């Protein structure tokens, strides 16, 4: 079963999504609007609209846990990596 999160916009200032639905860690998500890169892990990464694997972390905001995007990996890249692992 495939669980999805939807990330509508990512703020380059905070590295957090502006709006989104989160289910759990390390899910496929569709990004339909990208505000900027996520500076915390890869300043060279220029995300575009499309499907990604998202690593979600949690931050404590005013006593409530808030989801935070820690990394996005394009789905095609994860498939290529999986193929390389199988060949090796």
Polypeptide structure, described:
With 88 residues, this protein is mostly beta strands. The protein has one domain (4-87). The protein is built from 1 helix and 5 strands. The chain has one helix spanning 75-87; strands at residues 4-10, 17-21, 27-31, 50-61, 64-74. A 5-stranded mixed beta sheet has the order 2-1-3-4-5.
Show the helix and strand layout.
Blueprint: E1 4-10, E2 17-21, E3 27-31, E4 50-61, E5 64-74, H1 75-87
Parallel strand pairs: 1-3
Antiparallel strand pairs: 1-2, 3-4, 4-5
Q: Estimate the helix proportion, in percent.
A: 10-25%
Distance between the termini: 28 Å
Count structural domains.
1
Our count of helices gives 1
Low-confidence stretches: 1-12, 18-26, 35-40
Beta-strand share of residues: over 45%
In short:
The protein is mainly beta and 88 residues long. The protein has one helix at residues 75-87, and strands spanning 4-10, 17-21, 27-31, 50-61, 64-74.
Key descriptive features of the protein:
88 residues, five-stranded mixed β-sheet, 5 strands, elongated, disordered N terminus, plasmid
